């Protein structure tokens, strides 16, 4: 049996007002319902918190000792509930985002500026991660959500695609591909390429799809699919 918050709150009000009737009125419940709540709390704690007569209510010695703790628990719970309602209604609350460097450095600043103007009391923290680190950051509660390139799907995460960007192939003007408007993966697989680190999400998402000397994006039907990840 878990501790009854309604009973806890009822006990605090009865103790403060010195009356079941007044406490029941403030809680908008019947006096009988309030009495049962307090009785359940006493049964759970296996102690008597209040001495009742037909005319008065008094705290027992145990009740007097427990009251400050009970009041603190009720106040903390009510404050937490108020903060949650404000976050939902007014968009209040700080947020942490795990993001790949490309988005963190180039796309997010403009979004953060607009967000800060709309919610000036909130703070945004950005965790700069590689594509493979974004998912674990969200799963370990280091971030509320993450922005990364689509890699291996995780059943524990909800994913939402937000945009698709084409891969680009760059070469010298005297390169055999310079006259082409698009380059296929088959053609790229035969070329010597200068590419980013193996830790790059762009490179990781193509290694499993194409057999190239080095992984590289091209301007055909392929592209980098950016996903938002959250638990």
List keywords for this structure.
two-stranded antiparallel ribbon, single chain, 231 residues, Arc Repressor Mutant, subunit A, alpha/beta, five-stranded mixed beta sheet
Give an overview of the whole structure.
The chain has two domains: 86 residues, Orthogonal Bundle (Arc Repressor Mutant, subunit A); 136 residues, 3-Layer(aba) Sandwich (D-Maltodextrin-Binding Protein, domain 2). It has eight helices and seven strands; from the N terminus they run αααββαβαβαββααβ. The protein is of the alpha/beta class and 231 residues long. The longest helix is centred in the N-terminal third of the chain and has 30 residues. The strands form two sheets. It has a five-stranded mixed β-sheet with strand order 4-3-5-7-6, sandwiched between helices. It has a two-stranded antiparallel sheet with strand order 1-2. The radius of gyration is 30 Å and the shape is rod-shaped.
């Amino acid at each position: 049996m878990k501790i009854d918050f309604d009973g806890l709150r009822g006990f605090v009000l009865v103790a403060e007002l010195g009356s079941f009737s007044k406490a029941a009125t403030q809680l908008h419940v019947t006096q009988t319902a309030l009495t049962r709540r307090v009785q359940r709390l006493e049964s759970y704690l296996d102690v008597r918190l209040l001495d009742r007569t037909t005319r008065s209510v008094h705290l027992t010695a145990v009740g007097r000792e427990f009251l400050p703790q009970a009041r603190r628990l009720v106040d903390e719970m009510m404050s937490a509930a108020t903060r949650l309602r404000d976050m939902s209604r007014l968009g209040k609350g700080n947020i942490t985002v795990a993001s790949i460097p490309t988005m963190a450095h180039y796309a997010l600043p403009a979004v953060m500026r607009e967000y800060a103007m709309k919610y000036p009391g909130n703070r945004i923290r950005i965790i700069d991660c590689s594509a493979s680190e974004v998912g674990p950051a969200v799963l370990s509660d280091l971030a509320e959500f993450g922005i990364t390139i689509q890699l291996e799907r995780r059943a524990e995460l909800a994913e939402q695609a937000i945009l698709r960007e084409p891969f680009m192939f760059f070469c010298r003007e005297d390169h055999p591909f310079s006259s082409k408007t698009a380059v296929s993966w088959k053609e790229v697989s035969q070329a010597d390429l200068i590419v980013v680190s193996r830790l790059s999400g762009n490179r990781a998402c193509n290694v499993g799809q194409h057999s190239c000397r080095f992984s590289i994006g091209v301007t055909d039907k392929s592209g980098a699919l950016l996903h938002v990840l959250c638990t």
